[in-house]
Design a protein that fits this description.
The complex is a heterodimer of chains A (319) and B (429).
Chain A: H1 2-38, H2 45-63, H3 74-96, H4 114-136, H5 146-149, E1 151-157, E2 162-167, H6 168-190, H7 192-202, H8 204-209, H9 214-237, H10 246-261, H11 266-286, H12 292-306
Antiparallel strand pairs in A: 1-2
Helix pairs in contact in A: 1-6, 1-9, 1-10, 1-11, 2-3, 2-4, 2-9, 2-10, 3-9, 6-7, 6-9, 7-9, 10-11, 10-12, 11-12
Chain B: H1 3-24, H2 28-54, H3 61-78, H4 83-105, H5 110-130, E1 136-137, H6 155-176, H7 179-189, H8 191-196, H9 201-227, E2 229-230, H10 232-236, H11 238-251, H12 258-277, H13 284-299, H14 304-312, E3 333-338, E4 346-357, E5 360-371, H15 386-396, H16 405-408, H17 411-414, H18 425-428
Antiparallel strand pairs in B: 1-2, 3-4, 4-5
Helix pairs in contact in B: 1-6, 2-6, 2-9, 2-11, 2-12, 3-4, 3-5, 3-9, 3-11, 4-9, 6-9, 7-9, 11-12, 11-13, 12-13
């Protein structure tokens, strides 16, 4: 009896973990593009995710009133649209602010621009977070519809005792997240743009000699990174409530995932996010709720101290 | 007069002026600000002493601040210990915490170190919430107010805050003028090189983080005494670490007065605006801090201390101990131009390129011309001319006039000019 109950809990958490993990994975991919190509630690990534959430929310409240847009699929479409919208914002921000401390400009700054980059993105994070508080208000909101509250029942099995409920909105979000990651992977491997991004990441100097505009590659990478994380945020918004301060919570989750997979590796980042999602959900079975995030931080510290190159990274990437 | 003595005189003058001001101000709100500002200045100094001099960026100073605050608060509640004992205790305990954090974390460098430091305060935040310390209020001690640092007037608080700041300033000043400061700067410039010349980098980094953490712990402990309420978010939150870093960066990293300057400008500014506009604009403090640091990065990346120095003493050139301006890739002097309409087929012309690394003159007055259809190679020992000269020519790509023959070339052909050779050294190894 108890064993079956435990089995049900574990299965339920695994399913939830896979769903959350796919979305975390998507966000981690966004973060890792920026680090991989630009070698910049972006502290504002959580805030851009928050903007993606609010983009979905506001578009939904403004456009959702029209009858022909009133489908259950509509929030998911909006979540995907948050990508291009934030991509543009990212390109503009890079042009105005970020490029002054990264790329070729970085070599002129103290400590290779590390200080300047960390502080600039921290400043952007503070402005977005607190400006968001002013513009969006502090009341938690969400973009939920009937799918968020409906679930497929998997089972009953093991003699009618165990059945697992699979939330529909989360499942759709997870599938979309996976699709976006695969799409991005193809972009990186197959297209000329992807090649130029990878070249700019491997060796900016050599890429310049080969005729690649590294500054433009950085701009696109920054836009892409932010856009992809924003899609993750939008998908998350369909089944969780949020407020302007939510970014700080997620930025650690993202970094944990990215470091777990090895900084700068796209596949690693997705799997890292996946593992963090599963770990978070499964730890909820045995630990009190407040310690769920501590598990993530402790695991993050453990990875970074024991295997800083991540599970899928190579040794030479460290330092 | 040595730098150390001059600092002591400045610190003394500063303390006297501040105390006089404290007696002149009667508005209790401004008095509270005058108490808080030195606490944050100490946090800025604490961050600066470690990160500013060693170049290892810490996003986790909130861990020490929070531990100090909770230690003082909980000792008072559980064992009725007074802050006169517990603040020094918090200082020592946080120094030990610094050692505990440093030992494993110093295996990392650069980005990894910064990321790892981020996790400590956040993990502690959730642990303290879980332990049930969501809001710890310090009990009122009517029977012995002075013993428990609970004064009627705000002036003693200001005096204590100032004392803390003076101690932090003296400690910083003493340390940066001796071997300690020099070793940390060496680590900041090049850790491997520092190790190679016989600096025990781990030992210096550990002592730096211990002293820095001790200062942060003292600031946290005193903060608890002043505000009387400790919450996990207020002492372990991201904003605490961010503020320590922001004040140091805003004022000037690697300087004695920079963090103090930063705190003295930003804390009152944000507090007063917060008091006035909080109802309409709840996040105004964060927005101000954010804009302040973005502006500093864009317009005065070394911090306003140096900016002021340049403005006040225009004759003195800006020499940053840590930047070592000669170490970058660019040529110091020289002219490189791309002709819009080539005269006699000359498309790229360089004249008077010179480069010195400190006292070592690597290249002196190099000049060359490249004609259309010509191949020009530059040969020389590594680290002499090729890189400075080609870095310059890379800069030019952005400015090539449309009529130039360069513009018509595909960019990989443009690159054949002067840029590739130093990569060849790999082949010759």
């Amino acid at each position: 009896m108890d064993a079956l109950q435990t089995l049900e809990n574990v299965l339920q958490s695994l399913v939830a973990g896979l769903q959350m993990g796919a979305m975390y994975g998507l966000m981690c991919v966004g973060l890792t593009i920026i680090f991989g190509v630009m070698r910049v630690i972006n502290f504002a990534q959580g805030e851009f995710m928050m903007l993606g959430m609010y983009f979905t929310y506001f578009c939904f409240s403004w456009l959702g009133a029209y009858a022909f847009l009133d489908g259950v699929w509509f929030p998911f479409v909006l979540a995907l649209l948050a990508g291009p919208a934030l991509f543009l914002l990212g390109m503009i921000l890079h042009r105005l602010l970020i490029h002054t401390v990264t790329g070729r400009k970085a070599s002129q700054l103290e400590a290779g621009g590390h200080y300047a980059q960390l502080v600039l993105t921290l400043g952007i994070a503070l402005v977005l977070q607190n400006g968001g508080l002013f513009i969006f208000g502090s009341t938690p909101v969400s973009v939920s519809n009937e799918l968020s509250y409906s679930a497929w029942e998997w089972g009953p099995m093991v003699g009618d005792r165990v059945s697992v409920f699979v939330n529909q909105a989360q499942t759709i979000s997870a599938i979309l997240a996976l699709a976006v990651v695969i799409g991005f992977g193809l972009l990186m491997v197959k297209t000329r743009l992807g090649k130029s991004l990878r070249a700019a990441s491997d060796n900016p100097d050599a890429a310049t000699y080969m005729g690649i505009n590294v500054d433009r590659a950085h701009r696109i990478a920054f836009g892409l990174g932010i856009g992809i994380t924003a899609i993750g945020g939008g998908l998350m918004a369909t089944n969780a409530s949020f407020q302007p301060y939510i970014g700080t919570e997620y930025v650690i989750i993202m970094y944990a995932g990215v470091v777990l997979g090895g900084l700068g590796s796209v596949r690693g980042a997705f799997l890292g996010g996946m593992i963090i999602g599963i770990l978070q959900q499964v730890s909820a079975i045995i630990l009190p709720n407040q310690l769920q995030n501590t598990v993530i931080f402790v695991c993050f510290l453990a990875i970074i101290l024991l295997r800083p190159q991540g599970i899928f990274g190579q040794r030479d990437r460290v330092a | 007069m040595s730098g150390g003595t001059r600092d002591l005189i400045h610190i003394g003058l500063f303390a006297v002026v501040y105390m006089v001001l404290a007696f002149l101000v009667s508005n209790s709100y401004y008095q509270l600000i005058m108490t808080i500002v030195p606490v944050w200045a100490v946090m800025g100094l604490s961050w600066n002493l470690f990160s500013g001099y060693s170049g290892l960026i810490s996003f986790g100073h909130a861990a020490f601040f929070g531990l100090g605050a909770y230690l003082v608060a909980l000792c008072m509640i559980v064992w009725e210990l007074n802050p006169w004992i517990t603040i020094p205790l918090a200082t020592v305990a946080c120094g030990a915490a610094g050692l505990l954090v440093g030992l494993p974390t110093f295996r990392l460098r650069g980005h990894y170190f910064a990321l790892a430091m981020l996790a400590y305060p956040l993990a502690l935040l959730y642990i303290f919430e879980w332990l049930g310390y969501q809001e710890v209020a310090l009990p009122r001690k009517e029977e012995a107010p002075v013993l428990y640092m609970q004064f009627e007037s705000q002036v003693p608080y200001i005096a204590l805050a100032l004392l803390l700041l003076v101690i932090a300033l003296v400690v910083t000043s003493r340390l940066i003028h001796c071997r300690f400061g020099m070793s940390l700067l060496a680590i900041k410039l090049d850790e491997d090189a520092a190790e190679a010349v016989g600096i025990n980098t781990l030992a210096w980094k550990l002592s730096a983080i211990m002293i820095s953490a001790a200062l942060a712990g003292a600031a946290g402990g005193f903060y608890a005494v002043v505000l009387l309420v400790v919450t996990p978010l207020a002492v372990f939150g991201m904003l605490v670490s961010a503020q320590a870093l922001i004040f140091a960066m805003f004022g000037g990293v690697g300087t004695l007065w920079g963090p103090v300057l930063g705190a003295f400008i930003l804390v009152p500014l944000s507090e007063i605006l917060y008091a006035r506009y909080a109802a309409d604009f709840p996040g105004i403090q964060g927005v101000i801090y954010g804009i302040a640091i973005i502006a500093v990065i864009l317009f005065a990346p070394q911090g306003i201390f140096w900016k002021l120095q340049v403005l006040l003493k225009p004759g003195r050139s800006l020499v940053l101990g840590a930047t070592a301006s000669g170490m970058n890739d660019r040529a110091d002097v020289g002219l490189l131009k791309v002709d819009a309409v080539p005269e006699a087929g000359v498309i790229l012309e360089a004249a008077g390129l010179s480069k010195a690394f400190g006292g070592l003159q690597a290249t002196n007055n190099l000049g060359f011309q490249v004609k259309t259809g010509e191949l020009l190679g530059i040969i020389g020992p590594n680290g002499r001319v090729k890189r400075p000269c080609s870095t310059c020519s890379m800069d030019l790509y952005g400015q090539i006039p449309d009529q130039s023959p360069f513009a018509a070339m595909p960019s990989w052909e443009r690159n054949q000019t002067g840029s590739v050779p130093w990569e060849w050294r790999v082949l010759f190894r």
